[in-house]
Design brief:
Cytoplasmic protein, 0% strand, Uncharacterised_YgbA
């Protein structure tokens, strides 16, 4: 019974991380790959992400599925083992830097949950309330 609850919790955490990553990559793609988005909106059955962004999303979901620290980590940036390739890691940083600023507009609940988790993580880590790098 306890193992099932733990597995459900980890599954939900993984799926949530994938969903947030999709939203962030999707926002980035919509604003930076407008040529693809124009074609995408006109084509029935097309994917919402361009090929480059889809590859980054697939890579990140693969990393999330294989993460052995998922139970204890809050974010990949706080993980003791950096498993992303450097070129993809830099692209993900660029995506998150852009999307993080506009998530409050497009996905406010997800953005507020993310901010809350960051504050909680910083509080536990530093034993003081620190908003540096969050706001």
């Amino acid at each position: 019974m306890c193992l099932k609850k733990t597995n459900d919790k980890l599954y939900k955490k993984r799926e949530n991380e994938k969903r947030v990553m999709f939203y962030m990559i999707n926002l980035y793609c919509k604003h930076h790959h407008k040529d693809y988005q124009k074609i995408c909106l006109k084509t029935f059955g097309s994917k919402p992400l361009c090929k480059e962004c889809e590859e980054i999303y697939n890579y990140s979901t693969d990393r999330t599925d294989k993460c052995i620290f998922i139970e204890t980590k809050t974010f990949c940036s706080a993980c003791p083992r950096q498993c992303y390739k450097i070129n993809i890691k830099n692209k993900v940083k660029q995506i998150m830097s852009f999307s993080g600023k506009i998530m409050l507009i497009y996905h406010p609940i997800i953005a507020l949950k993310h901010i809350f988790v960051m504050i909680k993580h910083n509080f536990i880590k530093n034993k003081k309330l620190d908003f540096k790098g969050i706001i």
